[in-house]
Amino acid sequence: MIRVRLTAQLKDWTRGVSEVRFERAENLRTALKLLDEEFPNIGQRILDDQGRIRNHVNVFVNSSNARELDSEETRLTDGDVIYILPSIAGG
């Protein structure tokens, strides 16, 4: 089981759901595609037009930033938790 945890900034796109579970996802790209299938248009909030994680979004697999791993190609195993954290701007 792969879990995806979403912050409050994304709950508008997930009908208030803060955690999603998938039986299986080979890698982070697949998990994000499954998330977008379940909640249409959330993918464009996380990925750019080239399918890469947007600069203002931090995605962690367990406690590691995906950018420090293999980014979208980061392999997933049973029990992994993905955290999606959009940056918050303010003044």
Helix content: 10-25%
Query: How large is the radius of gyration?
Result: 12 Å
Proper CATH architecture: Roll
Low-confidence stretches: none
How far the N terminus sits from the C terminus, by CA atoms, comes to 39 Å
Count of runs of 4 or more consecutive helical residues = 2
Going by CATH, what is the homologous superfamily?
A: Beta-grasp domain
- Determine the oligomeric state from the structure: single chain
Number of strands: 5
| CATH class type | Alpha Beta
Number of domains: 1
Shape: globular
Structural class: alpha+beta
Strand content: 15-25%
- In order across it, which strands form the biggest sheet? 2-1-5-3-4
Largest sheet: 5 strands, mixed
CATH topology: Ubiquitin-like (UB roll)
Element-level helix/strand string: EEHHEEE
Round the mean pLDDT to the nearest integer and report it.
92
Describe the model.
The protein has 91 residues and is of the alpha+beta class. The protein has a single domain (2-86), classed as Ubiquitin-like (UB roll) (Roll). 16% of the residues lie in helices and 24% in strands. It has 2 helices and 5 strands. It has helices at residues 28-38, 43-46, and strands at 2-6, 19-22, 57-61, 64-65, 81-86. A 5-stranded mixed β-sheet has the order 2-1-5-3-4, with helices on one face. Strand 3 (57-61) and strand 4 (64-65) form a beta hairpin.
